[in-house]
C-alpha cells in the first residue's frame, strides 16, 4: 500500500521541491515494512540479517526524514543550511553505524539459528531514544509553526501532519512495549510499527493534497490558462496540440492530440499583411517570433492578432510553440478614432499656423508702422530719438565719433501750392529714396517733421560727414519729379553736426540730444539764410 501511494503521488502530481522531500521520506518509510516482511521469506541467516539491517537503517533515517519534512511543510527551510544539515543527520548516522557494526551483539542477537526471532540489546534503545529526540525537535518546530501561521488552510495542513506524527509515535511505542519489553508475557503482534508508518503517511498525504498550498501555483496557472480571454494553443515541434484553452475555442476548432495546420487555418480568413511571407517563416524559420492580424468572416467584424513564440532548449532546438490569439477589435477602433482625431487636430493645427503666420505679418506691419513714416518709409521721429539715446551712450562709452544731418527741402510750400499735395508727396518720397541710396546699412534716416529729415551716421568723423553731406546735396539737386507735363527739381539746405571721440562727454542723454539738435537746427537755418542749397557745418 505504501508503494501504491508512492506511485500515485508521482503519477498524478507535478514534482516540486517539497514533493521531492516527501517522496524521499516516503521511500524511507517503505523500507521498514519491506525489511520486516522480506525477513520471513528466506531461511538463510545472512539474507535475513540484510533485510533486518535494511529495516533498521530505514528506522534510523525516519527521524531525520521526519524533521526535514516538517521543515519544508512549515516553510522553515532556512534551518537546512550549511553545517546544520550535518548536525541534524549526525546522531542518526552514528546510531545506524552502531547497529550495522553490532559489536558484541549489543544491538541484536539471533535466536536459535536465524533472525526470524531476535533479542535486542542496549544499542536498540539508544536508536529508539534518538528517534524520540528527533520527534521532540520536530514537534517543537510544528507547534512554533502553528502559532506563527495565520492561514486557516495552512493550520489545518499542519494539524493533519501533527496527527500523523502522533499516530506513528503511538503505534511505535506500542510495538516496543508489546513486541520487545513484554514479549515474555504477551503474544507478538506483528506489523504495529508498519501500520503506524502507513497511517501517518496517509495523514501526510492528506496534509499535502487536501489542505496543502504546495501546488497552489500550478493550480493558479492552470486556472489562469483556462479562463483567460486570450486564446492559447501549445504545440510541439511537429504541430501536435499539447494544450488548448477555452479562449481559443471561438477561433480555432482543435483539440489536444490533433495537429494544428497554419495554412488550413489562415485559408478562409482575411489576413492583413504578407501571408505568404508569414507562412514561409512559420514553416522554415521556427525559431523566430511571428505576428499577424486577421479578420473573422462573421457579422461581428472582429480583428484578431496571432502571435507565435517558439519554445527552445539551451541549444536553441525547437521543442514547441506557443500560439496566442488576441482580440484587437477595440484596439483597432481606438486606433481609427485616434487617427481621425489626429487628422482633425492636424487640420486645426494647420489653421492655427496660418492664423499665427497672418498675425506675425500683421504684427510686423504694425511694428513697422509704429517706427516708420507711412509716406516716405523712413523711420519716424519717435523711433529716431529712442534709438539715439542708446547710440550716444555707446558712443560715449567706447569713444566712437558720429555725425548728424538735419536738412529740409527748399521752397517746398511753393511746390505744394503750385503742383498740389500729390506732387509734394512724390517729391518727399523721391528725396528720401535718393538720400537712403547713399547711406550705409548702419546709418539711420528719419523724417523729422514736414519736409525736414535727419540722418544719423555712427563711426563718422568731421571730414567724412562734410564730404557725404555735399554728395547728398548734389544728388538731390540732380533729381527731378514728373508733375504732369512739367518736371520738378528741388534742392535741400543742410545743417551738419560732427562729434569727435575726445569731446564726447555728458550725463543726461536726453538733454545732450536736445543740445545736438538745437545746434544742427541753427546750422540749418544759417544755410537757409545764406541762400539755401548749401551745407553748413556746426563749428
From TrEMBL:
It comes from the Bacteria. Keywords: Membrane, Nucleotidyltransferase, Transferase, Transmembrane, Transmembrane helix. Residues 290-340 form the PAC domain. This is Diguanylate cyclase. One of its GO terms (molecular function) is diguanylate cyclase activity. It comes from Cohnella cellulosilytica. Residues 400-539 form the GGDEF domain. The chain crosses the membrane at residues 21-39, 51-73, 85-103, 123-146, 158-182, 188-209. NCBIfam families: GGDEF. The lineage of its organism: Bacteria, Bacillati, Bacillota, Bacilli, Bacillales. Its EC number is 2.7.7.65. The keyword Metal-binding does not apply. PANTHER family: DIGUANYLATE CYCLASE DGCM-RELATED (PTHR45138:SF9), REGULATORY COMPONENTS OF SENSORY TRANSDUCTION SYSTEM (PTHR45138).
Amino acid at each position: 500500500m505504501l508503494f501504491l501511494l508512492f506511485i500515485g503521488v508521482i503519477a498524478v502530481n507535478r514534482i516540486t521541491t517539497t514533493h521531492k522531500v516527501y517522496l524521499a521520506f516516503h521511500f524511507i518509510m517503505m523500507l521498514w515494512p519491506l525489511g520486516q516482511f522480506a525477513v520471513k521469506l528466506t531461511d538463510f541467516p545472512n539474507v535475513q540479517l540484510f533485510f533486518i539491517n535494511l529495516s533498521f537503517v530505514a528506522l534510523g533515517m525516519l527521524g531525520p526524514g521526519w524533521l526535514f519534512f516538517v521543515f519544508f511543510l512549515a516553510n522553515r527551510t532556512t534551518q537546512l543550511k550549511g553545517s546544520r544539515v550535518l548536525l541534524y543527520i549526525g546522531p542518526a548516522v552514528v546510531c545506524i553505524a552502531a547497529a550495522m557494526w553490532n559489536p558484541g551483539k549489543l544491538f541484536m542477537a539471533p535466536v536459535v539459528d536465524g533472525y526470524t526471532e531476535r533479542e535486542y540489546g542496549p544499542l536498540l534503545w539508544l536508536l529508539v531514544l534518538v528517534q524520540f529526540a528527533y520527534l521532540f525537535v520536530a514537534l517543537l518546530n510544528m507547534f512554533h509553526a502553528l502559532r506563527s501561521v495565520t492561514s486557516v488552510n495552512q493550520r489545518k495542513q499542519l494539524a493533519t501532519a501533527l496527527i500523523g506524527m502522533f499516530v506513528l509515535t503511538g503505534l511505535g511505542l506500542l510495538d516496543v512495549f508489546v513486541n520487545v519489553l513484554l514479549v515474555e508475557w504477551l503474544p507478538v503482534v506483528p506489523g504495529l510499527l508498519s501500520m503506524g508508518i502507513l497511517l501517518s503517511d496517509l495523514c501526510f498525504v492528506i496534509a499535502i493534497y487536501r489542505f496543502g498550498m504546495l501546488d497552489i501555483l500550478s493550480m493558479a496557472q492552470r486556472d489562469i490558462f483556462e479562463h483567460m480571454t486570450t486564446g492559447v494553443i501549445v504545440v510541439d515541434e511537429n504541430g501536435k496540440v499539447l494544450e488548448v484553452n477555452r479562449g481559443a475555442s471561438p477561433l480555432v476548432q482543435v483539440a489536444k492530440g490533433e495537429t494544428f495546420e497554419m495554412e488550413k487555418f489562415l485559408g478562409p480568413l482575411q489576413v492583413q499583411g504578407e501571408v505568404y511571407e508569414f507562412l514561409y517563416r512559420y514553416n522554415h524559420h521556427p525559431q523566430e517570433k511571428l505576428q499577424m492580424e486577421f479578420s473573422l468572416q462573421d457579422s461581428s467584424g472582429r480583428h484578431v492578432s496571432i502571435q507565435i513564440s517558439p519554445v527552445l532548449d539551451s541549444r536553441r532546438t525547437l521543442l514547441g510553440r506557443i500560439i496566442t490569439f488576441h482580440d484587437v477589435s477595440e484596439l483597432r477602433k481606438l486606433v481609427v478614432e485616434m487617427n481621425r482625431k489626429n487628422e482633425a487636430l492636424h487640420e486645426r493645427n494647420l489653421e492655427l499656423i496660418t492664423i499665427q503666420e497672418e498675425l506675425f505679418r500683421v504684427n510686423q506691419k504694425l511694428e513697422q508702422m509704429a517706427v516708420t513714416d507711412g509716406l516716405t518709409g523712413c523711420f519716424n521721429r519717435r523711433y529716431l530719438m529712442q534709438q539715439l539715446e542708446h547710440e550716444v551712450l555707446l558712443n560715449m562709452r567706447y569713444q566712437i565719433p558720429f555725425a548728424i544731418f538735419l536738412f529740409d527741402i527748399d521752397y517746398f510750400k511753393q511746390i505744394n501750392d503750385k503742383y498740389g499735395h500729390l506732387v509734394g508727396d512724390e517729391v518727399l518720397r523721391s528725396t528720401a529714396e535718393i538720400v537712403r541710396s547713399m547711406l550705409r546699412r548702419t546709418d539711420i534716416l528719419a523724417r523729422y517733421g514736414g519736409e525736414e529729415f535727419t540722418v544719423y551716421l555712427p563711426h563718422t568723423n568731421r571730414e567724412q560727414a562734410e564730404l557725404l553731406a555735399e554728395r547728398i546735396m548734389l544728388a538731390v539737386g540732380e533729381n527731378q519729379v514728373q508733375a504732369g507735363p512739367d518736371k520738378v527739381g528741388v534742392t535741400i539746405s543742410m545743417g551738419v553736426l560732427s562729434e569727435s571721440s575726445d569731446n564726447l562727454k555728458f550725463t543726461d542723454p536726453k538733454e545732450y540730444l536736445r543740445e545736438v539738435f538745437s545746434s544742427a537746427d541753427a546750422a540749418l537755418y544759417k544755410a537757409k539764410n545764406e541762400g539755401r542749397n548749401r551745407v553748413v557745418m556746426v563749428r
